[in-house]
Automatic annotation (TrEMBL):
It comes from Gonapodya prolifera (strain JEL478). This is Kinase-like protein. SUPFAM superfamilies: Protein kinase-like (PK-like) (SSF56112). GO terms for cellular component: cytoplasm. Residues 1-22, 401-443 are annotated as: Disordered. It comes from the Eukaryota. Keywords: ATP-binding, Kinase, Nucleotide-binding, Transferase. One of its GO terms (biological process) is intracellular signal transduction.
Length: 482
């Protein structure tokens, strides 16, 4: 895998950059499948990666590329970012066959020095949070039903492949405002899971965190329970679409835990305008500690709120799905099932296991490509060398200098602070806590709920001197959550 070298950049690039789609402020990166023109301009930057625009020099297709450094960080709060990078790539690879219509697609990968480039489809639209804001804080019943069915279909696909997203939220769902088609993006907190194997990382956004994740922030491991934490976050998301804000007030783990416990004795509170009883029943089926282990994405698909929706029938087997996809899917499933390290409680072991999985996926992918190009006949000579050169992704090629920390991961996404409360609170960041326009906090006084629901977003925006109308995003945008 190569990139234009520096001493060539100033000589050869002057004569070629004029022909590159992204011009002089770009570079050429060779991926495992394609050659790419990558913009040096950063669209977004976070703890995990920098995000850039890319153009496929073979097809002209636009994409988004996330560039992540594989040098282990010395900062405690970022000590496992290398593991997150590998798990993101591994998760996207595991769900690749069939290209589910409601999940962002992995297109290619490259490694140059200590940097991994993950090329993903450019999802057009806006964040669901932004769309909600444009609509005044809540959506009509039929829109919520349409969006929810697609999200459930996506979670069925993820959980079938033993992948838990762990960061489902309004910000990580892209929606086309015209068609209402949605896609889940941002897999940088995703992990593999298997029933009976505990998880312990307190990752994600606290506004969407399940009782399990809150417990993990206090040092308690938990079982996957059929992807329950993803389903809980789905319930919070659907509540937000119906009402315009979050169902829980607290943003501190111990207080939030008490709110959860109270749901065993009382029903979930609803604020604002009346909500359809069927939609309410769907959310209440999820947002109670009693649902742990009793619900799955498949069982939610049968709920009257979304049962029979085309997203759960037509998309069950995407139109582009082929027999080759089924065969490749079966191979990847076997690779996940036989690799116990993917679900090890030791994060260092996980990291090595994900690297092995990626190597195995590359070998399987090369075999599939040889079969497709030669219709089953073994390839020889230069053709075979070209395929193996562009597809092979061995563990050595994706090696890293340091293992992920294998100690107790309370501070997997930790922060500074004094005392246990400060540590656990920092482990679960608030929704875009640096952006005052990203929260959906319910009003403290219930009697003021109706008056607040419709003005909430404009009030939040006006604090920064920007009106909702003036802050309206473009219909076509790009968002890769960080």
């Amino acid at each position: 895998m190569t990139k234009t070298k520096e001493h060539h950049t100033h000589t050869h690039a002057h004569s070629t950059h004029k022909q590159l789609p992204l011009g002089v402020e770009s570079e050429v990166v060779d991926g495992r499948r394609f050659r790419w023109n990558v913009a040096t301009h950063v669209l977004a930057h976070g703890s995990f990666a920098s995000v850039h625009t890319a153009v496929n020099l073979h097809t002209g297709e636009e994409a988004i590329v996330k560039a992540s450094n594989l040098v282990a960080s010395s900062e405690e709060k970022n000590r496992n970012l290398v593991l997150y990078t590998f798990r993101e790539l591994g998760s996207l690879a595991a769900i690749l066959p069939g290209h589910h219509p409601n999940v962002v697609h992995l297109i290619d990968v490259a490694k140059i020095g200590e940097t991994v480039f993950i090329f993903e489809e450019k999802v057009r639209g806006v964040e669901l949070f932004t769309y909600l804001k444009e609509q005044g804080g809540a959506l009509p019943y039929q829109q919520v039903r349409h969006i929810t069915a697609q999200l459930v279909a996506a979670l069925i696909h993820l959980h079938k492949h033993h992948v838990m997203h762990r960061d489902i939220k309004l910000d990580n769902i892209m929606i086309d405002p015209e068609t209402l088609h949605v896609k889940i993006i941002d897999f940088n907190l995703a992990c593999f899971f298997r029933e009976g194997f505990p998880l312990s990382e307190p990752v994600g956004c606290i506004n969407y965190a399940s009782p399990q994740v809150i417990g993990a922030s206090m040092g308690r491991s938990y079982l996957p329970e059929r992807g329950w934490s993803d389903l809980w976050a789905l319930g919070v998301t659907v509540y937000g679409m119906l009402c315009g804000f979050f169902p829980f007030r607290s943003e501190e783990p111990s207080r939030l835990s008490k709110e959860f416990s109270s749901l065993l004795k009382r029903r979930l509170e609803w604020f604002g305008q009346p909500v359809d009883p069927v939609a309410r029943a769907f959310v209440e089926r999820i947002l109670t500690p009693a649902s742990r282990g009793l619900i799955t994405a498949e069982s939610l698909a049968r709920h009257p709120f979304i049962a029979g929706h085309e997203a759960l029938t037509c998309h069950a087997t995407p139109a582009a799905h082929t027999a080759a996809d089924d065969a490749f899917d079966a191979v990847l499933t076997q690779l996940v099932d036989k690799n116990d390290g993917l679900v090890s409680p030791d994060l260092g072991t996980q990291q090595e296991a994900v690297k092995k999985f990626l190597g195995d996926v590359a070998v399987a992918g090369a075999a599939r490509m040889r079969q497709e190009m030669g219709e089953g006949a073994p390839m020889q000579g230069q053709g075979q060398m070209q395929v193996e050169e562009r597809v092979r992704m061995s563990a050595d090629d994706l090696g890293v200098p340091a293992r992920a920390t294998s100690s107790h991961p309370d501070a997997a996404i930790g922060g500074d602070g004094d005392g246990e409360e400060a540590k656990t609170a920092a482990a679960l960041p608030r929704a875009r806590s640096t952006d005052s326009d990203r929260t959906l906090v319910p009003p403290v006084e219930k009697k003021r709920a109706v008056s607040k629901i419709r003005s909430f977003f404009s009030q939040r925006a006006n604090k920064s001197g920007v009106t909702v109308a003036a802050n309206r995003p473009k219909t076509v945008a790009v968002s890769v959550g960080m």
